[in-house]
Amino acid sequence: xxxxxxxxxxxxxxxxLVRGNTLLADAVASSVxxxxxxGGVVPEVASRAHLEAVVPMLTRACAEAGHALRDIDAVAVTxxxxxxxxxxxxxxxxxxxxxxxxxxxxGVNHLxxxxxxxxxxxxxxxxPTVALLVSGGHTNLLLVRDIAVEVHELGGTVDDAAGxxxxxxxxxxxxxxxxxxxxxxxxxxxxxxxxxxxxxxxxGKDMERxxxxxxxxxxxxxxxxxxxxxxxxxxxxxxxxxxASFREAVVDVLTRKAIDACKVHGINDLQIGGGVxxxxxxxxxxxxxxxxxxxxxxxxxxxxxTDNGAMVAALGSQMVQxxxxxxxxxxxxxxxxPVSQVRAG
Length: 345
Ligand code: ATP
Ligand code: MG
Ligand code: FE
Known about the structure:
Helix content is about 45%, strand content about 20%. By secondary structure, it is of the alpha/beta class. Helix 3 links the parallel strand 4 and strand 5. The structure holds adenosine-5'-triphosphate (ATP), magnesium ion and fe (iii) ion. Its cofactor is Fe(2+).
């Protein structure tokens, strides 16, 4: 079946077509430049940009795939979590298409879709698998029994998400928004051992209660203090070393806890997804540590890691293939949809 996927949870309008696990077209428009001068996504600006982009992206995706709207067998859309007004645009478009074409509608979880993106690169997920989801708004360890039906949350962040920490630290270092890719670039010139930044929730007593949880706000504060101390003493801030040491601290914790989760649950497969998966050091260290631990690692190509319609179509396609019942036409835009809820009602 040919599945259309629509993504509009944040600042990317993504529309894609997938057949089985094959990506046929993936059109993405981003309003990121419009938010840059505010240092973060402005919800009203994002919603308006989605309204303007949704029809052009639909047209582009169909043209790219060489398909007409009537060829579509099912419509999948991000139901949540995300910005309410932004989600509403995609959900409304999906409902209209589903109704007009008389095809089933699947409201899917954006976070499960991030994890599912990899099927387009490497085929069906090994199940069960442990998944590490690292994005702008979320950081979770998940136990995936069936990506279309059953996902359990092993842990999450108690404060900032990993991507959020990257963006905040970038701001302190005067790097442009969004900061993740800039920190990654600058860090390549720095020494990751120059400064020993804290590894949140990895000490013995924290591990007892928060084994698979994350905390990045202490790390962020520690970077801020360090930069302030430089400025107070009139020393230049060694931006590359700070970026490299910060990145190392984040990635060290993410990979350690992910591998620990695999060991505790006796699972030898780790899937990584979400925008922060674009991080070069995360990819390298995960590879190194998984190889040591005998865990097989799956990470999608970078363009599938950040927000797009392809991952939404991929998850919708899994639902169709596994006979999951469709959502109703009054499915909500659910800004706080829990990560363990794969499909909207
Ligand atoms: P969510 O998926 O939680 O709703 P989101 O959709 O805004 O949030 P994504 O698009 O998945 O998030 O990811 C964006 C985040 O990824 C930003 O915080 C960005 O800084 C971060 N990011 C992108 N590339 C890199 C990189 N190379 N290194 C670190 N972080 C990165
Ligand atoms: Mg974005
Ligand atoms: Fe995302």
